[in-house]
Write a structure and sequence with these properties.
about 350 residues; alpha+beta; 60s Ribosomal Protein L30, Chain: A; five-stranded mixed sheet
Amino acid sequence: MKRAGYRGRTPESAGEQGFWPSYADMMSALALILFFLMLLSYIQNLITGNDLQSTQKLLESTREELALTLSEMGDAGKKLGSLTGELDRAQLKLDLQQEEIAGYSLKIDEQTETIASQQKLIGDQARYLKDANEEIVAMRDQMQTIAVLRLSILEQIRASIADVMGDAGKVSIGENGNIILSEGILFDLGSAEIRGGSQKVLNELIDVFADFLSDEENARYVDSIVISGHTDSTGTGEVNRELSTDRANAVLNYLLNGKNGKLKDDAGYFCAAGYGATRPVRSNDTEEGRSANRRIEISMILRDETVLDIVDQYLALDLPESSEKVSEQARRVLTEAHKLINGDGSVL
């Protein structure tokens, strides 16, 4: 039996029936493609999700590292600020030190100039000291000449009186360089009248002084020859002053009038003074001390002008500035000169 529908189809109906299977196949293929695309999209989402999660973890880790880095940078910034402050303080300290160094440098320059000036001054002083030492030696020679002359005449007087008396114990040269005659040589106790046996002593004094003063070289140094009387402390001060003065004048009068006025032309050199008990040489508490205090002293005073001429020669020299050593040496020379002249270091 034949199928009417199949065998009796026309070509047009056969064509429509051939189309639908192809469309179904196409839709199946499209659905399959969509499925694969969805599958791929899912797989991709899975992969992307994993990557995103990993990326988020990495980002979080990076953020943590960034926060740590920022914190470290903050600490580093603080340290940098602290170091900057220290650097600023160090720079300020360096600037101050440089200013101090500049000040020290200026002081060193000033001191160098001062040292150079002082070295020049020292050189000038050294040259002056050499010249001054030569002047001092020359002056010492002159002073010693005067001192030797003074001591020479006093020693001559002492020796002459000792020879006349035959007893050197009653005539001496004191620490002050004066001739000391004990009371017993010329006077009785409490008397101002020259004893009869003492004329030989006074005559010897006349001869010694006359010979000495006759030499102009000697006479030009002499200012005065002082006859001074001294007593012990027994009695009142008024009585002792009167007695000592009377005794000194008695000796002076005899010297100027004795031996036919041999010293008459030299009377201007002599003078007398009485000191009573005001200048004792020993204690008045014992008889021995009182006996030593009752005395006649003969002192030779040299001319101030003679000494001053020598001193002026020294002072006339040009002194370098700040010559302390030279000035000190000058004072020593002048002091020594007065000692040589006066015998006791007192100023004339």
